[in-house]
Amino acid sequence: MRVSEIYNLDIYSDNGQYLGEVRDAIVDLEKGEVSRILMEEWKNSAEDEVRRMIQQKSILFKNIKNIGDVVLVSSTGGPQKTAVSTSSSELSDLSSR
């Protein structure tokens, strides 16, 4: 599946809660895989805005259970629960892109 095929899909938890819509993705180029999906379009912003997007408006790709007509994520994998501690170096690397 191509990343472009998941854009604009609705995101639901496995307990039926609507979480948002896929607007963008963060790809780990070294691993060649998607690391997060974003519920906002990526903006090259200040570090605090990047931190907010990652913590509140993203879901770790490993928490996705299924992709079909919608994206289904683990109910423990909602936006706030899927964000892992993000180091300052990771944030500065992301904000410089």
Which characteristics define this entry?
97 residues, alpha+beta, three-stranded antiparallel β-sheet, 3 helices
Concise synopsis of the structure shown:
Helices cover 23% and strands 30% of the residues. With 97 residues, the protein is an alpha+beta fold.
Give structural notes.
With 97 residues, the chain is α+β, with helices and mostly antiparallel strands. The protein has a single domain (3-95), classed as SH3 type barrels, CATH 2.30.30.240. It is 23% helix and 30% strand. It contains three helices and seven strands, in the order E-E-E-E-H-E-E-E-H-H. The chain has helices at residues 47-56, 79-82, 88-95; strands at 10-13, 18-21, 24-28, 33-38, 58-60, 64-67, 71-73. It has a four-stranded mixed β-sheet with strand order 2-1-7-6, with no helix packed on it. Strands 3-4-5 form a three-stranded antiparallel β-sheet. Strand 6 (64-67) and strand 7 form a beta hairpin. Mean pLDDT is 81; it is low at 80-87.
Secondary-structure class: alpha+beta
Strand order of the largest sheet: 2-1-7-6
What amount of the residues lies in strands?
Answer: 25-35%
CATH class: Mainly Beta
Quick one: how many beta strands?
A: 7
CATH architecture: Roll
Radius of gyration: 13 Å
Major sheet details: 4 strands, mixed
Shape label: globular
Estimated helix fraction: 10-25%
What's the end-to-end separation, in Å?
A: 25 Å
Counting DSSP H or I runs of 4 or more residues, the number of helices is 3
SSE pattern: EEEEHEEEHH
Q: From the 3D structure, determine the CATH topology.
A: SH3 type barrels
Query: CATH homologous superfamily - what is it?
Result: PRC-barrel domain
Average predicted local confidence, pLDDT: 81
- Count of spatially separate domains: 1
Give unreliable regions as ranges. 80-87
